[in-house]
Amino acid sequence: MVYADLHVHTQNSDGTLTLADVPGAAREAGVRVVAITDHDRLHPGLDDPVTELDGVQLVHGIELRVEAGDQRLDLLGYGVSQTDALAAETERIQRDRVERGRRIIENVEDALGVSLPVEPREGLGRPHIARSVVDHADTDYDSVGAVFDDLIGDDGPCFVARDVPDFQTGVDLLSEACGLVGLAHPLRYLDPEAALARCDALDAVERYYPYDRPLGADPTADGPAKVDAAIETHDLLATGGSDAHDFELGKAGLDEADFGAVSDRL
Predict the structure, then answer these.
(1) Is 53 in the same domain as 40?
(2) Are 223 and 257 spatial neighbours (Cβ–Cβ below 8 Å)?
């Protein structure tokens, strides 16, 4: 049973949950603790690092994408107390997201010959654009995944890269603002071993995750063993979460005992 789902997105970035929806979704899944980890953005409805809403403990977090050599990684910061430096960087990233979103929308509209009912805005992510394609009456796409595969994935013809901070800058920003900083979904990168090697600068790594979309490692093979080895080598805390972008929480996460170690740090 998942006690703590430490990777959940809301409408503040590219999820479908509102903050008010979270307690009900958590109770439906039997989850007692939820970390709100919106992409490159702090949630304006969470003032404290850890709070309670309708009987569910909420951890204020953030998922921050960074440049790490030959690949981009996602860092998870937990227990955020906003600093001026982090606020300034997230504001810069959101301005870039707006412009990047505008360019991707224009690219997709040109490629498909349609006008999409989505506007560039702060918090806009590619899933928003993909959903607008699926919902459009004049396209043949029936899944978000297909839109990514054909159009807006990292190698797609409509893709536009974001301007993200470098790895060390991201670590420094989150370390100053958060109680715990970890690497998200280490088996979701093209080079998981290089990603895990970066954990020597971090506090934690996401050990429990629904690896249904592996990239550089097969999670049924030795991927989890490599994560476990990194945990031991770098003395890391194991975190976990469902990476929920919808109402289904608790697909992965920590049990109550494992969350105790994380809670102590927060």
Answers:
(1) yes
(2) no
